[in-house]
Amino acid sequence: MIKRFLMACAAISLLAACQSPSKKAETEKNKNAFTTLVNEDVTQKRDMKLSELVEDFQIIRFDNRDEALFSLRSFWPYFSENYIALKCNKSPVKLFAKDGTFIHDVGGLGQGPGEYSYAYECLVNEKDGHIYIALFGYTNYLLKYDMEGTFVGEVRFKENINKGRLFALPDGSMALTHISLIDPKGASGSFSHALIPTNGKDSIRYAYKPNLSTAAYFQEGNQTLSGLEHEIWSYRNTDDFPVMYTFSDTLYHYDMQANELVPRFAFSMNPEARKNNWFILTELPRYFYINIVGDKGRNLLVDKASGEAFEIGKFTNDFLGNMDMWPRFQDGYYFECMEPLQLMEKLEKTLASGDCPKDQVEKLTKLKDSLDENDNNILFLGKLKQ
Predict the structure, then answer these.
(1) What backbone phi and psi angles, to 5 degrees, belong to 340?
(2) What is the pTM of this model?
(3) Lowest CB count within 10 Å: 269, 338, 339, 370, which one?
(4) DSSP notation for 3-19
(5) How far apart are CA 147 and CA 105, in angstroms?
(6) DSSP per position, 181-222
(7) pLDDT value of residue 179
């Protein structure tokens, strides 16, 4: 897929030795400038501190009421300006205030109206005053709830959606993308994206992207996974609806006005190395983040402003004594969630490491002593720098 765009993109060449500076990427002066990176060209490696990525840092203790307790198994958070929604295994989506106070469950588990067995995606759309859930199964609707968690109806599509991802627009309308299992060939094919109006009166606008479906992928002979085993990633960390698919090497933006996908960033690996590896492309306000999973696994960042790329060595939380951490991002935030006992152990290790600054020792000690292993989980949260 990369070959189709190379003539129109600015390439990053990073062939310098580890101690040498990277070449700068040639960047077009528009927000959808297309950039490529070759894994084998990234030779630099450096450590990072959390303060390089975030403008603030919070420690949020979730409510200890029985109904607020949740497991970190299959856990994922979603953030809006005033709320945190949590998706976890064998539990309804839970809605919390930003200070960790439990508000209510969103719907419930089951097979009745407004019930579900597993939420694949959640969006707290404060602009239109509703919460939306996309299901894991192959369905043709989203579940819609009011801010009290009460089921109010469905948003129905003309075809089934597979692993739908949602994005809120400033006016309260939404966009959806999913993994199309049928090769989209015009209006008669399967849609890849959709714009959902906020007023309920206008019709849903569908978009079709040829060669961006598992069907098209299989036609090229890349039958590594079945259609339903593929994954889609869209962590909503920028305002352009960035999205990436397992079967593609490119991160796209969904251009709402043109109602089409625009290639934004592409990543390639030596075919021999990629056989046993896969990667996730994530866009942050200041960086592209590449997480390579497998026996050649490593994590890379590309600075959008300078075009420099490097492998992340040690990643530390310098707000908490240079504690070892690893970055996770959603809705414009860094986050990390831990059980109290797990956090106690990490704090003890950090305090004993000799890397904790002296002026933070008292703070970490007080935090460790305040924890109870029977409490609910603790969330670290930081707003990403723009």
Answers:
(1) -55, -45
(2) 0.88
(3) 370
(4) GGTGGGSEEP---S-TT
(5) 10
(6) SS---GGGS--SEEEE-SSSSSPPEEE--TT-SHHHHHHTT-
(7) 87
